[in-house]
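User: Sequence in, structure out. Go.
Assistant: Echoing your sequence, followed by the structure tokens.
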Amino acid sequence: MIRENDHQRMRWASRRGMLELDLVLAPFVEAVYPTLGDADRACYQRLMECEDQELYAWFLGREAPEDPALAGLVRRIVAHKRGEGA
């Protein structure tokens, strides 16, 4: 089970400098992050260390992360935003 302070920390980390990112990340962190396993939560935490411009390009599909784990998580976040599930 996820600890509340971890979830709260990721809510805060998901608030970015770009509204477009907030609109993608906030629903994911609220609905899906608490259900992730330890490895996926660690991957999400690494994702939050990336620059906003990188995230924006990844979520728009203009570029993809080199790290396969991050690329998979980006696909999962985009699918969640599109309503295709987590």
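User: And one key feature?
Assistant: The helical segments are 4-13, 19-31, 38-47, 52-60, 68-81.
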